[in-house]
Please model this.
Amino acid sequence: MSGFLTFLLLLAIGIAAFIIGRMRALATNTGQGKAHSRPNYHGAWAMLCALLPALLLFAVYEIGATAYINRDIASQVAQLGAGQGNANPEVTTSLIKSLASGLSKLDPAQATNPPQTMAELIPVLAAKGVTLATDTKDFMIPIAVNANATFSRIAWIGGILSLVLAAAGAVFGLSQIALRSRARNKVERVMLGALFTASTLAIVTTIGIVLSMLFQTITFFGDISPLNFFFGTVWDPRFAAAGSGGSEGQFGLIPLLAGTLYIAFIALLVAVPVGLMAAVYMSEYASKAVRSVVKPALELLAGIPTIVYGIFALVTLGPWLRDLSAILYGGQPFIQAQSIFTAGLVMGVMLIPVVSSLSDDIITAVPQAMRDGSLGLGATRSETIKRVILPAALPGIVGAILLTASRAIGETMIVVLAAGVAANLTANPFEAMTTITVKIVNQLTGDLEFNSPQTLVAFALGLTLFFVTLLMNIAALTIVRKYREQYE
Amino acid sequence: MTDFAIDTIPVAQRPPRRDIGIKKRYAAEARFKAYGIAAIVFGLVFLAIMLVSIATKGYTAFWQTNITMPVTFDAAVLDPQNKRDSDPSVLIKANYDKLAQAALATKLGISPDDKPSMTKLKGILSDSARIQLRDALTANPALMGQTVEVAMLASANIDSAFKGQVDLTVPEARRKVKDQQITWMNQLAQDGTLAEKFNTGLFTYGASSRPETSGIGVAIVGSLMMMAIVLVLALLIGVAASIYLEEFAAKNRITDLIEVNINNLAAVPSIVFGLLGLSVFINFLGMPRSAALVGGITLSLMTLPTIIIATRAAIAAVPPSIRQAALGLGASKMQMVFHHVLPLAMPGILTGTIIGLARALGETAPLLLIGMVAFVANYPSTPLDPSTALPVQIYMWANEAERAFVERMSGAIIILLVFLMAMNITAIILRRKFERRW
Model:
């Protein structure tokens, strides 16, 4: 009995429980007293009693069955003598699994008693549209047949158990239907549990992010020492193709970190003055007409995906800056087509709306009384802004700058396309440097064995990035909270 | 009368005005205003330059050069041993290239024995012409032996040359398009054989190594599947979490922890979600790589904080009087939330969802890590089949050097921006139409 069929039957039992429950609830309402809950709630309670335990059992059973089969196959593979594929047990296991799933597509008679050699089996499978890897050997066939048989036996048992549990739950729920039974309260308590579970998903996600990268990072630090990683100044992974020996590479974080910070610095150099001045002008000077045009335009700038910015830098801005520098310098361009300056400039423009909208909120939060007092004492508007409002809003603005910096550090697509992949360590902003995010993408898009240091370093980089941005966000929040003036 | 001089009567004199630097301060004021205007103009000019440069590079992608000419389905070339009735594979493996070239040679007036010219002829038609002829014949076997007008794609080089994108001042040896081919192209264009048609293939083809047969069809289907998954998952979980946090959560440590986590997740770089998807969904749970399901789940985790924050604001904006009226009439708290508060907060929730979806549509980095950078030529039939997404397709085309791919990449960016603008405008209209002032 397939899992899908079992699932459908469980749903059918649940719906039947709902309908029967509702009819029974209507029947018990004979006018002798006031019903506590509406009939729908009684039906829903019966359905929940039927479905929830059964679905839980079903899910656990499916996962457990898969894990059990995997371990079974792995143990059988381990018992094989050497020379029969014991050199690489993981590959053997996965070949057996794909053979088993291919066999399950045959007719039942053929599936339980297939031809015992691959030469005979391959055309039979091909007729059903199944292709297998050429490494599949003859000894794998009985193991695969056995695995299929075990799986279907387990599936039968699990399916029957779940259906029995569902029926029992339905009977229990239906037996509780009475005039004054508090079905609505019970159903609402279950709903509350569901809402709570949904909100804990945020915590689960954070834990998942940290754990998933932590395990891989720990494996990575088994090969490469953390000191070499965090303080190394050379990035040279020396790619090794999957399956080959894997040569030692150098994984130094410093060039990547320097590139990230340099590009973020240039981006902030562009974004903060422009964004801040734009926010100040729009909140203090602009008329309603101007504001109604400029604000949507800046939001448009914010809505453009970063890959569009990256392609603009790659295809238009980079070559233009290179040609411009050639003209200025007389022949030899001193700005590379992919340089820190290009990437920083484009990233800065992308961050302008971020700075602008954050600063706008902060500046409008400064009370009007302070502006009026300053103007009343004879200051011009710009003096009011420079000497009264901006200092009052300073903690908020510093927080906004930190948040923008954390976005600049985590940005990927612009730097992938505009900054190049050369892990340089240079102070010249017109050369190419690369960043942490670019290297994460490079190390993971390629044919690499998953457990090699070349791939695992991406997780170490990701964990570093996560913690750096987390620290910056926490710093932003604490600065704002600690130094913010309360004007009430 | 009096004769003392009038002009000796002392009159109180105003002291001279003290210089408080008013001119300088007004000048500083004007400068400050000018800086503000300059900042706004800088941003808007950059936006305009970016949009214009992409539009000018990409609008030509919507037209594709076709060659429409009579082709003779000569049985002597396709099936010389007359086996097609017994063996249908003969028609599939037949030499349609020769047919296409023969038709083109006839049109241009070149003799088939002129070997150098026939070699130059090969670069004019796309390699996909033979597939188009094969499909025409297998769909209608009665065409054998007949002469019909068939529309075939021109090769990408001829397409670029026709659109004027090829620099003809470069010496011929360093060009992909030879002078003789240009002459023939102009000759064909004059009598209307070679013409530009609207490029529906851009919207229907999948990935291809030839620019003229590549399109964003698969990418659009993949993106739509992922948007559907994000809509279902992120909206349901996000609204459920927001309701709990706004209405039911007690002020204890767990609630604080949840709120801190949501605010942090909103600021985590998107590539970290890609690492999460790779590590948990693909490695640990064994889901298929490049599947739209994995991409959808990863993107919904990324969009969740945005939706939660927007939904909380929408729910908090519903006035307490509505809540208390419902409770006063005997509703339970759950009934109050689901029957009264949630419907009233719906416009705000929808607006936040659309904006979150628009952000998810444009995301590339997490999808790169879960393997959606795949060469997918066929439409995915289920969310578990390999597929790709629109921004990822743009990224893949950006890595190609051919001019025709640059044009298509810009065309795809135009399509992506149109989608995004449509979604944002929908959100703004919804917000304006359904916003209630309490």
In short: Strands of chain A lie at 235-236, 250-251.
